Fold these 2 entries.
Entry 1:
Amino acid sequence: QKEVEQNSGPLSVPEGAIASLNCTYSDRGSQSFFWYRQYSGKSPELIMFIYSNGDKEDGRFTAQLNKASQYVSLLIRDSQPSDSATYLCAVNLLRANNNDMRFGAGTRLTVKP
Amino acid sequence: DAGITQSPRHKVTETGTPVTLRCHQTENHRYMYWYRQDPGHGLRLIHYSYGVKDTDKGEVSDGYSVSRSKTEDFLLTLESATSSQTSVYFCAISGTNTGELFFGEGSRLTVL
């Protein structure tokens, strides 16, 4: 079992719709959770992080964490064509006080005008 | 944008040759990382550093070595490149051991 799993997609939504991206992780000791966005041919950039159970909202983005279910999700409201990218879920295992960030394989999102 | 530069950005080499990728940061961050990214695998950690001369292995460290003699530089060396090491390599930095990573632009390596 991979430590971080994501639906590989591709996920296609119409402009203005809600895009829902999901991620599960295997290590119950994981402390922090991140969503990165990666445009084709570019490097990943952080869009959200969440440490506590529940929802965290930032503009059109909402991250949701359920530690009991070992589940993290990212909702993108009012999706725009510029949101078309690959979204990477990352989980920090924090081993021996050092970052040990594990990434999922990513979900490719396409927002159609 | 975080001040991270990787060099070279593109390299084509032959099997069996040594290769060194350089990551340079101007942020004075303590933590530095080397990842490789391959289709279907996402980003996988090769090695990381938590200070000058302090390094440790990641999940795919075989065939790679690293060195960090200065805060700002983190070198990744492939002693004898193989075709399985064809990949895009990303350097990342972080100011804390719990926080976000800032990535360099990537180095595309092709081993023929």
Entry 2:
Amino acid sequence: SQELEQSPQSLIVQEGKNLTINCTSSKTLYGLYWYKQKYGEGLIFLMMLQKGGEEKSHEKITAKLDEKKQQSSLHITASQPSHAGIYLCGAASNFGNEKLTFGTGTRLTIIP
Amino acid sequence: DTAVSQTPKYLVTQMGNDKSIKCEQNLGHDTMYWYKQDSKKFLKIMFSYNNKELIINETVPNRFSPKSPDKAHLNLHINSLELGDSAVYFCASSQRWAGKKETQYFGPGTRLLVL
């Protein structure tokens, strides 16, 4: 079965600084989703990557899927308090998206 | 308007009781899911329904029984609750297209605490 490892597990960053979260898969990624979770809320969809080398950006968040399609990174530029939360990567199987396997999560804290 | 909604948001109950969690989506999706997030925040799929038909059942105890009365609803009934059932349960939905990957949209979660 596929396993996703996220690093770091937790991250404390000063407001305004850049940061990167990594997601490494034990198998080839056929679709990689990034979600953000705040306490007491559900998962908020951020981005989906499918092709090797693909890069997507939304506001100050950029996600990339490496060429070999076994790792993805999420980069936040000039972090803000609103970026705080738990970031989860989720992998779809090569047959469809019925089953998402999630990573271990990265807890991001932004300090003023 | 809430896209994927769950009730209740919090559920505190005694061991051995039977409880249900409800989920509704107004996105017009044909596939719905139940996920369980444990105390370590590890999120794992439990069930998936497509057009009211069960398509994924991930080694979940028989005490858990999902029911989908229609495409927009997927309820989760849990019998004889155990301490280990304490977790956050998330409902999600997506539209299934052959050969295409569509985003799953999640509800706010139901926090279940079994005492």
